[in-house]
Design brief:
The chain is mainly alpha-helical. It is 56% helix and 6% strand. Strand 1 and strand 2 (134-135) form a beta hairpin.
Amino acid sequence: MTDVNRLLLDVLNELTCYIREEDFAGWDPYDGLNSEVFNVLPFKNNSYYRLVFSQLLKRCPFNLRPFLIIRKERNPKGIALFASGFFNLYKILKKEEYLKEGATLLSWLENMKRTDFSGFGWGYNFPWQSRYHYKPKFYPNAVVTSFVGQSFLDGYNTTENSKYLEIAKKAADFLLNEVMVVDDDSVYFSYSPSDSSQVINVTALVSVFLAHLHYYTQDALLRSVASRGIKFVIKKQNEDGSWYYGTKKYQQWIDNFHTAFNLLSLKQFSQYINDFNFREELKKAYDYYTKTFFMEDGRVKYYNDKLYPIDIHAIATAIITLSKFGDIDLAKRVLNWAIKHMWDKEKKYFYFQKHRLYTIKISYMRWSQAWMFLALTEFLKDLRKCSG
């Protein structure tokens, strides 16, 4: 066993113990509006104060959640990431406990589905306020539903339980009927049923989920819609290979993990559909990504033009993306840096963000632990493939 494998397994085992002890429940950077204190204040329904309160709590280097009475909860997206990670572990280590754990988490997700829309939808376990929209707790959206759908497909791939495939089909029904928007010869997917925003990675994530589902069902409609969604993503690519977060003027930034989502989606789409017509665009995007977002020592930049904050979510998606593209050495450097600087050896969890002068050491279950758990299992799986 190599030193990297040993270190990876040690951290993974300790992280697994931590998330089990917490019952997969925790805080989230965006859970401010779950505060029982905020919700008795007279301005709790004011969109401006909701947004400011949420952002201040997210950026605060100290954990004020116990004082604001924000309780630890399970997050459907986080649970989906954990489930996919446990199915990875079962495939690697062949231990029944991981298979059972993944199945138990999928059962929880099944119970948390929203059925008051077309098909099945899932949302975050907190209300969220953006500049222009407010969504109540568990209001279904395209991103969470796509990740949950992918976790059921991972379960189906591992167990061949047809129930999981049927639930994934219901997730696709939600995406096709509630958030799909036709855009000339392409389509895009809005973030949620009540808006028409064009966030590029949302369309990428939905499209690759539909392509993955098509891989198992051979449904021609899924192939067609997924292909048109990817066409939209390609159409929005900048000349240098990058993507802005969205198409609105206030969304014109370029960051690490949303770029990674686009890259992974394009690569996996081509594999599921057997369509390699955009190799040039994919190569240009990957070259931009690796040249822009990584430091020599393994640090991962958050934005294209700014190093800080170094964010664990960006680190996790970078590890997954690099390993899927076969860039194992760079992925190892990122992982080693993360374990050295973002892993709490005593408390057995990953920190949230490292800023120039301080580190936010709060444990966020979805944002930090779930993403790193998935990243570690994906990287371990890819390392095993490389070693034969």
